[in-house]
Amino acid sequence: MNSDLERAFKVIIKSVSLTRPILQCVHFEDGVATATDSHRMIRVKDMVPKGLNFNLNLADFSFEEGNYPEEVNNLIPTEFAAGFTVRASDLLSALPIIKVLDLGVNRQAIICISVDSNKVTLSSNSGILRSTQSISLAIDDFKGEPIELYCATKYFADAITAVCTGHKFELIHFGFVSKLRPFVLSRDKMDYLLTPVRIFD
What we know:
The chain is of the alpha+beta class. It has helices at about 5-15, 90-100, 155-165; strands spanning about 25-30, 30-35, 40-45, 55, 60-65, 80-85, 110-115, 120-125, 135-140, 140-145, 145-150, 170-175, 185, 190-195. The protein has a ten-stranded antiparallel beta sheet. A four-stranded antiparallel beta sheet has the order 9-8-7-11. It is globular, with a radius of gyration of 17 Å. The mean pLDDT is about 90.
């Protein structure tokens, strides 16, 4: 396992409660590695030979007995109401700004993701600057209908870091089902699933 992937898995695993030891592991099954904290999930294909099935605790690289939740195999959507691609290099360039949007005061910062046919706009008004901050990125291959949803800024920044680091020349695909259903960032053999949050006016 390379260091970037190990770091991406650990970012998710470290937020798991000690009362859920099986989720403190990376689950390997038929070549696919999966980690989740119930709010987000990372899945990487062709990590190990098919036929192997085990849970690996990255804290001490020990094997954990137990059954990993079967539902993780069905969480990644296969059909989307909206989707687009964006250059990984653009996302990485925007990452410092996105992290500024995470400077919340006494609560988790939330980012708004608004998509139309030619751009995705990321904005937040929960930062220490106490004003709406935003950044827009050009997109390609837009399909479906415009959509707007919200998710935790930190989780979104972690997803960009995991999917884009070391792959700045690749295109990253975003897929959305609805404003309240999990959405996916994908490239090559990696899928990163994020759960939106509900915003009440």
